[in-house]
């Protein structure tokens, strides 16, 4: 990893890692709830419809 010189770059880097982690956890939770993995044939009528933008509020600021 190259040197992250400014605190803003460091903050943005940490924010992006946290965002990806939260998205992965939500996807895994949806897989468990629907009882099938993404891109697999669904077992019942319950399905994945679409994604929408969300804002998560946290101590270090918000993530969109």
Please give the structural blueprint.
Elements: H1 7-34, E1 56-58, E2 61-63
Describe what you observe in this structure:
The protein has one helix spanning 7-34, and strands spanning 56-58, 61-63. By secondary structure, the protein is mainly alpha-helical. It starts with 6 loop residues before the first helix and ends with a strand. The mean pLDDT is 80.
Radius of gyration: 16 Å
H and E string: HEE
Shape: elongated
Outline the biggest β-sheet: 2 strands, antiparallel
Mean pLDDT value: 80
Counting helices, strands and paired strands, the structural category is mainly alpha
Short summary:
The chain contains one helix and two strands.
List its traits.
64 residues, 1 helix, mainly alpha
């Amino acid at each position: 990893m190259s040197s992250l010189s400014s605190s803003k770059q460091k903050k943005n880097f940490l924010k992006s890692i946290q965002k990806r982690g939260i998205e992965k956890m939500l996807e895994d939770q949806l897989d468990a709830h629907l009882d099938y993995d993404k891109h697999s044939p669904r077992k019942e009528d319950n399905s994945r419809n679409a994604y929408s933008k969300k804002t998560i509020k946290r101590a270090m600021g918000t993530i969109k």
